[in-house]
């Protein structure tokens, strides 16, 4: 049994906690708000940007997971650098593997499937922030200061994810029109939350896989319109009307709202094909995504439970 420290308790942090505790590991979850410690999981209220405090918590840990995801996207340039620096410093001080939950922002707009060997060439703020975090962590790995690894996922689906597909599914189950961002008929990769956690644990706990980024095995790309129809079919409800919010409307809203302005930066993800190449992880890690119907059933169950609560 090893000690694992998880920074963040969103859908990926929650899935990580469940997977690690099921495997018999000791888990500490660090968030600003803390929580009730139970079932072998210790929850601590801590500012993860405080490297001294975080290093104390992570002393002796096998892995330090960065599963944080600040929702104030327009403030990433302010929030992420000190937090990422603290995590990197903590990993260096304690010897814990730094395992990061990443995304595809750093690549920026690309033509064709997105593979790990593409440059991190984003020009918008959020993408540059994520690219810089990755570069710093892997530079420290190459210098022998830390052991670092990252997994990158597309938009999440299932397991309590707060993302476009889940929100559209929520509308379908409630019998409402689904308002979606961009073009609902563009091919798009959706990544399971538990698949992300499973991939992260696999690469974090095997040193052969350190020193690079891995794309999470995901189901074949599906337009959001089809995702909503599939959810409705699994739930036994009518397929709702779907309305796409165009890019110009998001850009207009961004003139007076920082969060919408950050969304406008990534509208390319929703107005053109957005396809993840996960062949490396499938081939070298032997992983496969959760079957599509199982993922849909998870979405239905999660949203119905949320509605009942």
TrEMBL record:
Q: Which domain of life is it from?
A: Bacteria
- Cited Gene3D superfamilies: NAD(P)-binding Rossmann-like Domain (3.40.50.720)
Q: Where is the signal peptide?
A: none
Q: Which residues form the NAD-dependent epimerase/dehydratase domain?
A: 8-213
Q: SUPFAM superfamilies, per this entry? A: NAD(P)-binding Rossmann-fold domains (SSF51735)
Q: Which InterPro entries match?
A: Epimerase_deHydtase, Lipid_A_modif_metabolic_enz, NAD(P)-bd_dom_sf
A Pfam family:
Epimerase
This chain belongs to which protein, by name? NAD-dependent epimerase/dehydratase family protein
